[in-house]
Amino acid sequence: MRPPRDALGATRVTALNQYGSRPTEQRYLRETKREPLNGLALIFAQNTLSYDVTFRRRELRAKRRTLTPFKQAAHTSAVSQHLFNSALVSGGYLAAYAAIDGELDLWSFIARHPRIALPVVESTKHMSFRAYRFGDRLKINRFGIPEPIDGRRVDAMKLSAVLTPLVGFDDNGTRIGMGGGYYDLHFARRRRPLLIGVGHELQHVKHIPQREKDVPLDAVVTESGWYYFSRRAEKLK
Fold first, then answer.
1. Tens of pLDDT, residues 180-225
2. Residues of the chain with CATH 3.40.50.10420
3. DSSP strand pairing (175-176 vs 146-148)
4. Mind listing the pLDDT tens digit for each residue in 126-139?
5. Is 168 helix (H, G, I), strand (E, B) or coil?
6. What angle do CA 209, 171, 79 make, to 5 degrees?
7. Mapping DSSP to helix (H, G, I), strand (E, B) and coil, where does residue 94 land?
């Protein structure tokens, strides 16, 4: 017999949407005093959560594309200034990215920073970082993203920080990316460099449901300034 709708996870989905954090299951059970949900209910909840994130990603990408070239340029200038005014310029290698699809463009910052590394997609779900100096040769990968050809490999764990592109971020540092999962998988270890999201202020939303695989950001910088989500990000000030 088919279980009733509530048993398929309706209450669990409510809990996920309300709390949206890693210990959701434990918090949900503790605060509602319910029994653990069966496997079917959890699968339903996980699929619903993935759908919510996919819908939000599509919505935020469309919103980002409404920015005019003038606005994009103004935001790029403001963010570059925020970055150069931070402690990032005095550290070691800093990972940046080559912007696509309306992401905030960092080329002006990259051109002036002496120790930049850019990501290289090696295979499905795996990437590495290579040193890059402005003007070095680049190739276009299968996602349409420029990658360095000749730069030496830079150990990701020795980077001072990683500037990550984003589609959206919330008040807790939860990030929505393009959906490939490269950054989350690569930096899933407990010890990792500072992860700093870079985006437009219109990509800031109040809440994004956090999935188990999501790695939270330490900070985000937009044209409006900095958001700090971890204690270690305080050293950026």
1. 667 777 777 767 899 999 999 999 999 887 777 778 899 999 999 9
2. 69-236
3. unpaired
4. 889 999 999 999 99
5. strand
6. 120
7. strand
Find, among 232, 226, 227, 229, the residue nearest to 81 by Cα. 226
Given a contact cutoff of 8 angstroms between Cβ atoms, the answer to whether 139 and 159 are in contact is: no
Q: Which of 9-13, 156-160, 176-180, 233-237 has the lowest mean pLDDT?
A: 9-13
The two beta strands, 168-169 and 175-176, are: antiparallel
pLDDT, mean over the chain:
79
State the pairing for strand pair 138-140/225-228: unpaired
Quote the pTM value: 0.75
Q: Give the residues across from 206 on adjacent strands.
A: none
Whether 179 shows a pLDDT value over 50: the answer reads: yes
CATH number for the region 69-236 comes to 3.40.50.10420
3-state secondary structure 172-228: CCCEECCCCCHHHHHCCCCCCCEEEEECCHHHECCCCCCCCCCCCCCEEEECCEEEE
User: What's the rounded mean pLDDT across residues 141-152?
Assistant: 91
Name the nearest CA neighbour of 223 among 118, 105, 47.
105
Question: How does 51-76 read in b/e, with b if 16+ C-beta sit within 10 Å?
Answer: ebbeebbeebbeebeebeeeebeebb
Give the pLDDT of residue 105: 95
Encoding tokens for residue 82?
A: 């925020």
**Kind and range of the H or E element at 150?**
none
